[in-house]
Amino acid sequence: MAETPAPPVRTLSLKSRVALAVGAVLLLGGVVVLAVALAYGRQAAREAYDRLLVGAASDIAASMSVRDGAVVVDMPVSAFQMLALAPEDRIRYRVIGPDGATLTGSDAAPLPPEREGVGPVFYDGDLGAEPGRYVAVTRRFAERGFSGPVRVLLGQTTRARAALARDIAQGALAVLAAAGVVIGLFAWLATRSALRPLQRLGGALAERDPTDLTPLALPMPSEIAPMLGALNGFMGRLDRQLAASRNLIGDAAHQLRTPVAAIRAQAQLAQDECDPEARARILGRIHERSVGLSRLLDRMLDRALIIHRTDTAPRAALDLRDVALEVFEEVDAAAIAPGARVRLDLPPGPLVVRGDALSLTEAGKNLLANALAHGRAPIRLGVAREGGRARLFVRDAGPGPSEAVLSGLGARFTSGAPGGSGLGLAIAREVAESHGGALLLGRSGDGFEAALALPRAGAA
Fold this sequence. Notes:
Blueprint: H1 14-63, E1 64-67, E2 70-73, H2 77-83, E3 91-96, E4 102-105, E5 121-127, E6 130-142, E7 147-157, H3 159-194, H4 196-206, H5 225-255, H6 257-272, H7 276-312, E8 316-319, H8 320-330, H9 333-336, E9 342-345, E10 352-355, H10 357-374, E11 379-386, E12 389-396, H11 403-406, H12 424-434, E13 438-444, E14 447-455
Parallel strand pairs: 9-11
Antiparallel strand pairs: 1-2, 3-4, 3-7, 5-6, 6-7, 8-10, 11-12, 12-14, 13-14
């Protein structure tokens, strides 16, 4: 019974994520703007009402005069008219003579902090049970009957200041709220428009036949194009794996049926044969066909493994000389061609490529086995540098196949010699192409050469 696929894990939609992100930005921005608006409102209110205070205090100082050696303060109406612009605030004033005595006003008005310089001095202090803002203005007299500084202290509660600061902040907050609504609306519309390519991609996938693994060709924004490329790459790898599985099944059904049927027929003959010598000959043929079938199975499984590793095995930097040594050590030349010897030809310096060592070794083993089975001694296995490429080659002294046969070598089940499976060169070709290279077959000097031409690591 097939397992029911687990439902996809659902999270917040992209629209919700964008909405939350925009809302968070607007909220944070609102808090910052509100704090800035409050600070600006307080500063603006303070400067506006400080001007009123210093204007009123200056009018009081200007109204003072000296009569009979004493300072007379004639409180001007204009000073109170200025302060009347804040009708809810209370005021307190105090005029202090050169000796520090209060000439008029309330003794409860606090003194300003001592500092040097000229001009009005602003400071904070209590005005009864409420906080207040004070200004101190100094007028200096230098007359015959009176000389010295006279200070005017004028204070006012801060109700009007706070109300003005709130009005400024509320106005800024109202503008921010309206702007936030407009920005949120445009962000929502922009998000819907930006997500339409994803909806098109999902629709294209949903409408596809389950067996259709061809690449999707859809116009996509630059941000989504990498995802489409990765999806096409995944489908390409899956298509190659499925094709390899189909080929393996088809090849097995096509290539194994005849030898298996022949072995069965020979076994039936051996079972019915009474002559010991004839039975021995039949058993010999059964053994030969079994060995051939075993080699064919090995080649088919090797090819399936190589195709699988094409998309799964990581590529690493490796010295092609090590691959040649591995091939030289693993191939039993005496078992394939009794009396044959293989000469190893390696350069003194490393020849680095990026690839899968196992796949390259299998390809090299197939090239060497072909040369031993179908070539002519002497046989050379070596590595060479050729421009920006590295070559793993096997060279023998034979003439090689004809031009007509040579043009078809490298395809599955196309052999250049009787008894060959045609899979060895196919494996080598697929390994070379999966590494960005090629399988080169041709005459070289007085012999025939098969080589894997691969791009060198770091070569231009």
